[in-house]
Design a protein that fits this description.
With about 450 residues, this protein is of the alpha/beta class. The chain is built from 16 helices and 11 strands.
């Protein structure tokens, strides 16, 4: 396994070519026995090869456009590419108008010379945390693949593309956990930055007030590297000593119902951190209990999704995944007064939570309370809805907070993938990634 960061260092040292790395990724996508057909809704084989070849020449001349010039990356199927229809994991938009311009982040990737290998599959319109897609198929989780476990969503294809070597890193979105959930379930690292850091022009929205663009890769430094390309202001990482860290663990809501695999990995990770001198404070943070009430009728996500979808949902309801349509339709039960109240409740809640966690270097939680269930288990609609709510429960806290967050693998080798989530308030992205890099190093030593 070569990480994006390692590949960039190998290119710098002249030890490998972007053509080789991109060809390897395209070969993995095309493999008949692989998940490529379910991972990608569109593959840019010729364009990626051409970009890698051009980048190879630039590296030979020691004039690369960026540290990821020619490296294979993927983009989620809700970013506009000029001349193409943006389908967002749905059949509904197959005949929609083509995009007249690239999404901002696509322009930034192209300017950096990245070899974009394709658009990745996702939960339809990004509206579940499971990654199930009845239109294009559901990519199987790399762990115990024969059992057909879910990849997590909504950036499902993004995670499996990285895990299966179809790209070195992937760009996704995160409205309630959509890069961190699949990263956790697939044993990867997923970073959700503060939403305002990355321009979202040309990105099909789910809920603009909560949407953010994030990345999935094999490690913290690779996430940082890709983020530094797509964000207007690159982050500066620094060395952190964990013996100086003071993290907080909320005691309300986020630790309830952990399955045995998650619980064991979570407790082990905490023991490892404490052994390094990390100070950990348990805080009631009872404000988290208020989220069930705030979101009882679908919340901001349902309201804002309905504003975008109501025409399609009323005229072509049969074109939707029924599970997604049900969630969208909840927004129809809200009115302008309800929405105004939701925004005020969120602002008040956010202010109180920010104040409560201000003394700490970060918030620690399990990313999700369950390991990846099988697709068969979710054929029961009631179980589907139950698991979806559980998957989104912890991660969505940070979207409501408008914060930044990263999920790190914390399971033992060979065990079911489990994520440890470190989060902070808005604008603390550089410190968050710096602490995450220190935690990652410590966890890897303990495995």
């Amino acid at each position: 396994m070569t990480t994006l960061w390692q590949a960039s260092q190998q290119l710098l040292a002249g030890q490998i070519s972007p053509e080789t790395l991109t060809q390897d990724a395209l070969r993995a996508i095309a493999a008949e026995s692989g998940e490529g057909k379910r991972v990608f809704t569109k593959v840019y084989s010729d364009a990626a090869r051409q970009q890698a070849a051009q980048a190879g020449a630039r590296w030979q001349q020691q004039q690369p456009r960026s540290a990821i010039d020619g490296l294979p990356v993927s983009i989620k199927d809700l970013f506009d590419v000029a001349g193409e229809v943006t389908t967002a994991g749905s059949r509904l938009l197959s005949n929609a108008s083509v995009a007249t311009a690239n999404a901002s982040l696509v322009d930034r990737l192209q300017q950096a010379g990245a070899a974009i290998v394709g658009k990745t599959n996702m939960s339809e319109f990004a509206f579940t945390g499971l990654g199930v897609n009845p239109h294009y198929g559901t990519p199987a989780n790399p762990w115990q693949r024969a059992q057909q476990r879910i990849p997590g969503g909504s950036s499902s294809g993004a995670a499996v593309a990285v895990s299966d070597g179809m790209c070195l890193a992937a760009v996704g979105t995160d409205t309630g956990g959509s890069v961190r959930i699949p990263a956790a379930l697939c044993g990867l690292t997923g970073f959700k930055p503060s939403a305002s850091r990355i321009d979202q022009r040309g990105t099909l929205p789910l809920a603009a007030s909560l949407d953010s663009i994030g990345v999935i890769a094999h490690d913290v430094r690779s996430c940082w590297l890709l983020d530094s390309v797509i964000a207007a202001q690159p982050l500066e990482l620094d060395e952190r000593n964990l013996s100086e860290a003071h993290f907080v663990i909320p005691q309300t809501r986020v630790l309830v119902g952990l399955d045995e695999h998650v619980s064991a990995a979570w407790l082990h990770a905490l023991n490892v951190l404490r052994a390094q001198g990390v100070k950990i404070t348990e805080l009631p943070l009872q404000e988290l209990a208020e989220l069930d009430t705030i979101n009882a009728r679908g919340g901001i996500t349902a309201w804002e999704a309905w504003q975008w979808h109501q025409h399609y949902a009323q005229s072509q309801p049969e074109a939707y995944d029924p599970q997604v349509l049900t969630r969208i339709q909840r927004g129809s039960l809200l009115n302008e007064g309800d929405a105004a109240e939701l925004y005020q409740l969120r602002a008040n809640w956010k202010q109180r939570v920010e104040q409560a966690v201000a003394p700490f270097d970060g918030i620690l939680m399990p990313t999700v309370p369950l390991i990846a269930p099988t697709l068969a288990e979710l054929e029961d609609p009631a179980r589907y809805m139950q698991v979806n709510l559980l998957m989104l429960r912890n991660t969505s806290v940070i979207n409501m907070l408008d914060g930044c967050s990263i999920s790190l693998p914390c399971h033992q080798p060979g065990a079911a993938p489990v994520g440890l989530m470190l989060s902070s308030t808005h604008g603390n992205d550089a410190a968050l990634l710096s602490w995450a890099a220190a935690i990652e190093t410590t966890l890897k030593r303990s495995s």
